[in-house]
């Protein structure tokens, strides 16, 4: 069995920043386990090519406090920045290593990943984000239309669709609509009468496309159900009785806490949110959470900052255990 001083689960912005902060603090060895083939899987999968990665996200300006920081840039520039952190801090990143079990035995954790990786460590930091579980609507998606319905802005999944409905009212809904409207007629359905948490830049871009007639806004609309239309499209039934037909529907409703994963480890939850203290330590001593898992509305800068807070707490609370190891 391999031994480490710290295991980080997930190599998104929060996981990489945690490893960077830990290495800078002299904690060694630190192992980062990532389930996909590349780090930053959420960004690879959900951000469209050339997407602007905003330093101010969901209208929240977060002042950087740690080592990892960034300024608004493109998706490709951001991924390069993360790659540079991995190189510069010589991060031991293991990809295609999905963590499926974490167990505490006496003072140490055993972390199981992939087919046969088992690592023993006194400290575990979980950084798996929330986009493994995109939020879905309450109504059922009929199986006849499942191949035309997408969650979490999988923009690459709608080739050929000429009329698309984007559902949601946040930044990712605005960006998805602006991206898709270059090749399709796009509608946005949002339950509120106006957008209130979109950043300025996205609002400007959206208003421009609306003026140009490329995007049509269906404000104050609520969807009741979906069905298959006779011409093999998706019929959307709104609560006010209106019906519209689309080639594809993209739900941009954000992500949800991976409750089952956290509960299986023994982490206590309250109202579907993990119980954590001011330094993001869970009810299990030595087990911390970072990134989107700890915020109601997460962002990259908030994820970076959470990594700094957690590593500071680990240094203060677990100095002995880090020295002793397992
Ligand atoms: C479309 C879209 C656009 C966005 N645009 C912006 C923006 O412009 N600016 C901004 O600040 N924020 C933006 N965000 C939000 C931002 O992406 C998140 O806040 C950020 O990615 C959170 O980082 P994280 O490391 O907590 O989680 P994630 O980035 O989700 O990373 C989690 C990682 O953990 C891995 N993982 C999951 N389960 C396991 C497991 N069991 N074992 C091992 N690894 C696992 C995943 O594969 C992934 O690589 C956007 C989000 C979306 C969906």
From TrEMBL:
Pfam families: Pyr_redox_3. GO terms for molecular function: oxidoreductase activity. PANTHER family: THIOREDOXIN REDUCTASE 1-RELATED-RELATED (PTHR48105). InterPro entries: FAD/NAD-bd_sf (IPR036188), Ferredoxin-NADP_redctase_2 (IPR050097). The keyword Oxidoreductase applies. It comes from the Bacteria. The keyword Zinc does not apply. Gene3D superfamilies: FAD/NAD(P)-binding domain. This is FAD-dependent pyridine nucleotide-disulfide oxidoreductase. Keywords: Flavoprotein, Oxidoreductase.
């Amino acid at each position: 069995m391999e031994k480490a001083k710290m295991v980080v689960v997930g190599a998104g912005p929060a996981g990489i920043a945690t490893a960077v902060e830990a290495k800078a603090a002299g904690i060694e060895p630190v192992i980062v386990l990532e389930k996909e083939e590349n780090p930053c899987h959420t960004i690879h999968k959900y951000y469209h090519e050339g997407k602007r990665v905003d330093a101010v996200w969901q209208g929240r300006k977060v002042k950087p406090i740690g080592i990892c920081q960034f300024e608004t840039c493109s998706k490709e520039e951001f991924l390069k920045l993360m790659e540079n952190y991995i190189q510069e801090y010589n991060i031991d990143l293991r990809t295609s290593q999905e963590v499926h079990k974490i167990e505490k035995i006496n003072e140490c954790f055993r972390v199981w990943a992939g087919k046969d990786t088992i690592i023993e460590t006194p400290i575990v930091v979980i950084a798996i984000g929330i986009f493994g579980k995109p939020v879905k609507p309450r109504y059922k998606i009929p199986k006849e239309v499942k191949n035309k319905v997408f969650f979490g802005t999988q923009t690459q999944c709608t080739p050929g669709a000429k009329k698309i409905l984007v559902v949601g009212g946040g930044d990712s809904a605005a960006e998805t609509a602006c991206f898709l409207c270059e090749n399709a007629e796009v509608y946005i359905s949002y339950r509120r009468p106006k957008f209130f948490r979109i950043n300025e830049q996205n609002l400007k871009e959206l208003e421009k496309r609306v003026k140009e007639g490329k995007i049509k806004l269906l404000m104050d609309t609520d969807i009741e159900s979906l069905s298959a239309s006779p011409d093999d499209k998706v019929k959307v039934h709104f609560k006010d009785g209106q019906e519209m037909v689309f080639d594809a529907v993209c739900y941009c409703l954000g992500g949800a806490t991976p409750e089952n994963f956290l509960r299986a480890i023994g982490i206590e939850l309250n109202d579907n949110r993990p119980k954590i203290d001011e330094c993001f330590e869970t009810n299990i001593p030595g087990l911390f959470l970072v990134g989107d898992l700890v915020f109601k509305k997460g962002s990259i800068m908030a994820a970076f900052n959470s990594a700094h807070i957690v590593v500071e707490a680990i240094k203060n609370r677990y100095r002995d255990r880090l020295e002793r190891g397992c």
